[in-house]
Amino acid sequence: MVFKRFVEIGRIAFVSFGRHAGKLVAIVDVIDQNRALVDGPCSGVRRQAMPFKCMQLTDFVLKFPHSARQKCVRRAWEKENINEKWAATRWAKKIEAREKKAKMTDFDRYKVMKAKKMRNRIIKHEIKKLQ
Amino acid sequence: MAGEKKAGEKKVGEKKPADKKPVEKKAGQKKVREKIKKPKKYHASRNPVLARGIGKYSRSAMYARKALYKRKYTAPETKIEKKKKEKPRATIIKPVGGDKNGGSRVVKVRKMPRYYPTEDVPRKLLSHGKKPFSQHKRRLRASITPGTVLILLTGRHRGKRVVFLKQLGTGLLLVTGPLAVNRVPLRRAHQKFVIATSTKVDISGVKIPKHLTDAYFKKKKLRKPKHQEGEIFDTEKEKYEITEQRKTDQKAVDSQILARIKKVPQLRGYLRSTFSLSNGVYPHKLVF
């Protein structure tokens, strides 16, 4: 199988741009070729139509019937503990690391530089020892 | 007008019984004096109103109606004014040398001007709000507070990270390395040529000597040519010498600040390093 993540009812998607950029949503129903009815009760996204283009599919799927109301979506979301599972993925960690790097102050950059230097020195030393 | 007249009379009526009470209490002699001292009675307006703001009589007619020709008052002449009346001498008698010259001349004290310009100086237009530099409002960026680490961008210490102490009277920032850390002495820096980082050193208890002002830091110029043609270019003070006072002031301030810097890990190394840009580093994207 070439594709592993499909657009289906219950698929959790990551919103990549727009008003809700950076949030997770669950696909509740498909409206037409380009849009889906989407809901993110545990991530602060109201139930609304959203184009597929701004969604990036994740590995998580919930179980609820199509057009289920928000209460059901929330129940399924909390049962699967999606928020914690998401925070544990590499994807989410990379996003967090990127944010932290952008917020670094001048002093932080200096500390990082010093830490990297020391680390590289240790590594090179170990390599030299092996030769 | 009739109404105003009644008001005037009412005033009189109110005052008289008030007057009479003290009169009755006092002795008989005073009674006579009190009676003579009548309360001032003011006449109503002698200029009837035709419409709002317009009176019936002109200025000169009113002058006559109010009998101001009889009511000319002058303030008593003070001693100062009496002294001022003594006019200064217009001419002076000066002795003149040489015989056959008559011995003295009468010379005017204030002479007529020897030159009149062709055109009069034109009247200057009114301007407002043009203040001299000493009265300008000094501003300080909100990101710069005492103890902030600043990055100097110009001057011989460009790129160095420095601790901000206070803003001086002209608006320049008083800054120190400290000297032991990065060889920047107590120095002035311009606010505009400085990047304020978000790193702050706690300078709350540090006492900065009061004599560190702009006059203390101002560059000295020694110019006393005394009209000597030779060696005009070899001016004194080509080489700047650090005075003893500067050294003591530096020690006094730095000793307090160094103690605080040592408390924060890695801060000393940070102040020793210099700031620079490299490939892929864009100042507008950096968070300082």
From TrEMBL, chain A:
GO terms for cellular component: cytoplasm; large ribosomal subunit
User: Where does the Large ribosomal subunit protein eL14 domain lie?
Assistant: 47-120
Q: Which GO terms describe its biological process?
A: translation
Q: Which family does it belong to?
A: Belongs to the eukaryotic ribosomal protein eL14 family.
> Does the record's keyword annotation contain Ribosomal protein?
yes
Please indicate which superkingdom the organism of origin belongs to: Eukaryota
Gene Ontology molecular function, alphabetical: RNA binding; structural constituent of ribosome
Xref: SUPFAM superfamilies: Translation proteins SH3-like domain
Report the InterPro entries cross-referenced here: Rib_uL2_dom2, Ribosomal_eL14, Ribosomal_eL14_dom, Translation_prot_SH3-like_sf
- Name of encoding gene: RPL14
Identification of the protein by name: Large ribosomal subunit protein eL14
**Keyword list, A-Z:** Ribonucleoprotein, Ribosomal protein
TrEMBL record, chain B:
Main subcellular localization, coarse class?
Answer: cytoplasm
Ranges of biased composition (kind: Basic and acidic residues): 1-27
Please provide the record's keywords in A-Z order.
Cytoplasm, Endoplasmic reticulum, Isopeptide bond, Phosphoprotein, Ribonucleoprotein, Ribosomal protein, Ubl conjugation
- Any GO BP annotation: translation
Positions with biased composition (Basic residues): 28-44
Got a GO cellular component term for this one? cytosol
General function of this protein: Component of the large ribosomal subunit. The ribosome is a large ribonucleoprotein complex responsible for the synthesis of proteins in the cell.
UniProt-recorded name of the protein: 60S ribosomal protein L6
User: What species is this protein from?
Assistant: Gallus gallus (Chicken)
- Taxonomic path: Eukaryota, Metazoa, Chordata, Craniata, Vertebrata
| Underlying gene | RPL6
